[in-house]
Amino acid sequence: MIAPITGKLRKRFWLDLTCALGLGTGAGYAFWYGVHLKSVQKQEEYYLKLERLKRQSGEV
């Protein structure tokens, strides 16, 4: 007769949970600093350019 394996599911759960949180946090930081902040910077530069053009055309 084969003895039941006890405690394996619990150990695997904590490993899976720890890996999921770690990888999720890493992916979140990678997205935030790799994609999001660059797109926000491009957007800010565009609106700054529009503001400069608006001021320049208003002075003429």
UniProtKB/TrEMBL annotation:
Which GO terms of the cellular component aspect does the record hold? mitochondrial inner membrane
| Single biological process term from Gene Ontology | mitochondrial electron transport, cytochrome c to oxygen
Q: Which UniProt keywords apply?
A: Membrane, Mitochondrion, Mitochondrion inner membrane, Transmembrane, Transmembrane helix
- At the top level, the lineage of the source is Eukaryota
Asked if the Swiss-Prot or TrEMBL record annotates the protein with the keyword Secreted, the reply is no
Gene Ontology MF terms in the entry: cytochrome-c oxidase activity
Which subcellular locations apply to this protein?
Mitochondrion inner membrane
- What CDD domains does UniProt report for this protein, alphabetically? CcO_VIIa_fungal (cd22888)
| Record field: transmembrane | 12-32
PANTHER family tied to this protein: CYTOCHROME C OXIDASE SUBUNIT 6C, CYTOCHROME C OXIDASE SUBUNIT 7A
What is this protein identified as?
Cytochrome c oxidase polypeptide VIIA
Q: Which organism is it from?
A: Phlebiopsis gigantea (strain 11061_1 CR5-6) (White-rot fungus)
